[in-house]
């Protein structure tokens, strides 16, 4: 259910392939086309999106791996520059999606120089592009470092699935008298591979992620640090070192996730804790959340005992001493106040950075 709520984007090549499949099988419904797209591309697409795709004409783009057509300010120049890049990749015998690591063939300075040479030849000396334009060009044509890295990972996954399929077919050919359980095993493996591919780019926590988070929280105990966010930063670094943890979360996001789990536990909301996981993961997660809540409460009580020592009432104690004890108890803990202020500033800074990144992303998409 959660996978269907995530936003997925098909490339222009995938959209054209979906259109051709619809033309070959016009009797298929949008739901059937949606299931075919998931089986083929490993991504769930909304039914309304499927309808928009099949009704639109086939798209022609210099970069078929882009998710949408973006012409830019100089479409003719970009077409010629991209064709030049493809020709050079073919000449060198290098995969276009791996050229970023092949001796600087796609360096920003070279792209900038070539682009201005084409503009000068086609439009005169008054036209030119900046270095920032090179960044937008690479984003539009799927040549940015992050896009190349993601494409390489997806290609490796597809190759692994293909190799598994070939091995399974060979095994089935050699063992034609296999039982029904043995023949269904390859299909189960392929389904698991497709599921893993579909969830590799997820951005939400599932039970396995929560278990890893809670395990490191119990090991590091960030609430015991003089500055709490220093402890959460250590938790985040440990999580990023885990291969099974595929989320790119900040220290503030991990802290917010723990607070949400503690809130569900305190409210008795077992349905929310049970989401996205097996029964065993739910039991394990529940035990870890309860242990974290227990240790945090014990630490908080211990700190309160240090900050507010109990005063034994004795008849011989004078009123002046009682007034002095009351005054000392009422003094605020300046260290805790500074910590809260520092944590608040850090949270505000993270929110500001997230808003700026979102604005930059929207700006680059508009360009």
Brief write-up:
GO terms for molecular function: DNA binding. The chain is an all-alpha fold. It is built from 16 helices and no strands.
Description:
With 367 residues, this protein is an all-alpha fold. It folds into five domains: 2-55; 75-143, no CATH class; 149-199; 203-307, no CATH class; 311-367. The chain contains 16 helices and no strands. It has helices spanning 2-5, 12-24, 30-41, 47-55, 75-92, 108-123, 131-140, 145-174, 180-199, 207-220, 228-240, 251-267, 270-274, 279-307, 319-330, 334-366. The longest helix is centred in the C-terminal third of the chain and has 33 residues, at 334-366. The protein starts with a helix and ends with a helix.
Set down the secondary structure blueprint.
Elements: H1 2-5, H2 12-24, H3 30-41, H4 47-55, H5 75-92, H6 108-123, H7 131-140, H8 145-174, H9 180-199, H10 207-220, H11 228-240, H12 251-267, H13 270-274, H14 279-307, H15 319-330, H16 334-366
Helix pairs in contact: 3-4, 5-6, 6-7, 8-9, 10-11, 10-14, 11-12, 12-14
């Amino acid at each position: 259910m959660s996978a269907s709520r995530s936003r997925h984007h098909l490339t222009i090549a995938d959209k054209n392939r979906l259109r051709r499949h619809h033309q070959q099988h016009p009797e298929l419904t949008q739901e059937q086309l949606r299931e075919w797209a998931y089986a083929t591309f490993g991504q769930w697409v909304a039914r309304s999106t499927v309808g928009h795709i099949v009704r639109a004409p086939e798209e022609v783009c210099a970069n078929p791996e882009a998710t949408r057509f973006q012409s830019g300010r100089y479409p003719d120049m970009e077409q010629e520059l991209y064709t030049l890049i493809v020709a050079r990749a073919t000449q060198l015998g290098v995969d276009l999606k791996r050229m970023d690591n092949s001796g600087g063939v796609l360096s920003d300075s070279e792209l900038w120089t070539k682009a201005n040479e084409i503009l000068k030849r086609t439009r005169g000396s008054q036209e030119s592009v900046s270095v920032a334009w090179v960044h937008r060009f690479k984003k539009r044509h799927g040549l940015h470092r992050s896009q190349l890295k993601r494409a390489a990972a997806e290609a490796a996954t597809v190759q692994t699935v293909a190799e598994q399929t070939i091995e399974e077919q060979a095994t089935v050919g050699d063992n034609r008298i296999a039982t029904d359980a043995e023949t269904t095993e390859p299909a189960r493996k392929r389904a698991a591979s497709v599921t893993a591919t579909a969830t590799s780019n997820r951005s939400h926590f599932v039970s396995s992620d929560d278990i890893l988070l809670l395990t490191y929280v119990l090991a590091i105990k960030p609430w015991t640090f003089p500055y709490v966010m220093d402890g959460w930063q250590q938790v985040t670094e440990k999580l990023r070192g885990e291969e099974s943890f595929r989320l790119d979360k900040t220290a503030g996001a991990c802290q917010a996730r723990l607070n949400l789990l503690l809130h569900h536990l305190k409210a008795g909301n077992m349905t929310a804790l049970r989401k996205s996981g097996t029964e065993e993961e739910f039991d394990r997660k529940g035990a870890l959340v309860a242990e974290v809540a227990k240790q945090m409460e014990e630490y908080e009580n211990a700190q309160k005992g240090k900050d507010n020592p109990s005063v034994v009432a004795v008849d011989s104690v004078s009123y002046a001493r009682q007034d002095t004890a009351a005054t000392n108890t009422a003094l605020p803990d300046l260290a805790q106040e500074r910590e809260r202020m520092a944590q608040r500033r850090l949270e505000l800074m993270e929110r500001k950075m997230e808003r700026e990144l979102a604005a930059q992303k929207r700006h680059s998409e508009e360009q």
